[in-house]
Every structure is written in C-alpha cells, then in structure tokens.
C-alpha cells in the first residue's frame, strides 16, 4: 500500500486494513469511540507525527477488509455476541479473581493494584447490563427489521438506544484508558510474579478486544442500522 490517504477516517482504516488497530493502539490513537476523525487530525490532536503512523500502516501491506466487515447488520450482531460478548462474560470474572489474588500478594508494594481491581469490577458492572440490553432488546430488533421492513421496535426508532449505547462505550473507553495509565501500559514490575504478568497480559488482551468490539458497533453496525432504517422510512 504505497499511497496511503491520511484523510481517511480511523474507522475506515481499521475496517479495511486488519492489523491497523494494533498500530493505532501503539500510538495511543482512539479509533473506536472517536473513529470518525481523519487520521491526520487524530495525529495532530496527539502531537504525533502522521508520516510515522502512515509508515507503520504501510508496513502492514495491501488493504484487505476483515471478514466481519462485509456482514449484514443482522449477521454482524451474531458475530459480535459470539466473538466479543462471550469472551467478556468468561474473561472478566477470571481477571477479577486474578487481580484480587495479585493484589493480595503484591498490593503492599504496589498499591495501584487496588485500583486495578476496582477498574475491572467497574468494567464488568458497566458491560454486563450493556450486553444484556443489546442481546435481549437492540440486536433482536435489528434482526427483525432486517427480515421485516414493516417491523416497528418497541423503543421507536434506533437513534435513542444507539445514542445510549455509544455513551456507555465512551465511559468504557475512559475505564480502559485509566487501566493503561495505572498499569503503565500493561507492563508488570520487575518484582512481579507469573500471576502478575498473566494479569497484565490478560488486561492488554481485554483492552484490544474491547476497543475492536466498540469499533464494530460504533463505526460499522450502528451506521448501517441507521441507514437501513432511514431507507425503510423513505421507501
């Protein structure tokens, strides 16, 4: 990919170029909750050299859209549940237990671990009802509208629940940002044990998975649903 367009939005780049999410994460560029910004504007906000980011993106090779990017809205909801919701339901309790254990052993020397435990607990407390609303209300309505153009969801139009879900995504982004700050970008201290390292590795994976999860909803699924609904209204 020799002619990379820095005017492309972060969201479009992540959708079209697998691996770009990791590049943005390394540079601290938020592509999920604020993915509609052009790359050069996002770099300018962080005082990051756009040419250096472009060089990293170019090194990924030719763009090839991820498989999920071509899914219909209905199928994308299923993908999100199976890929991300199921992961979070299994991983968050494991990370809470592991963080509690590590804090018990190392908390006296590393008091920041107490906040790490709290942040993971807050993440689970926020995401559990969030995912339930998606799985029980919003996602089934998306699938029904895809099957039946005359379907009217009980909540009216999709703008209201989508706005709420996106605000909750913003809050989750702030929790993830704080986890990065507290853990020093998930780098365990020199006196950390194997469990300490496993905790930080798990948190890094949680951060990466959740940011991609939010990107798929904010920047791909929700715009597609709103466009589909608008088309049905005017047809």
If you had to describe this structure to a student in words, what would you say it looks like?
By secondary structure, the chain is an all-alpha fold. It folds into two domains: 10-65; 68-234, no CATH class. It is 71% helix and 0% strand. It has helices at 10-16, 20-27, 39-46, 50-58, 73-106, 112-147, 159-183, 194-234. Helix 1 packs across helix 8 (194-234), helix 5 packs antiparallel against helix 6 (112-147) and helix 7 packs antiparallel against helix 8 (194-234). The longest helix is centred in the C-terminal third of the chain and has 41 residues, at 194-234. The relative contact order is 0.14.
- Structural class from helices and strands? mainly alpha
How many separate domains make up the residues? 2
User: Mind describing the biggest β-sheet?
Assistant: none
The end-to-end span amounts to: 40 Å
- Gyration radius, to the nearest Å? 19 Å
Q: Could you give the count of β-strands?
A: 0
How much of the sequence lies in strands comes to under 5%
Low-confidence stretches: none
Short description, anyone?
With 235 residues, the protein is mostly helical.
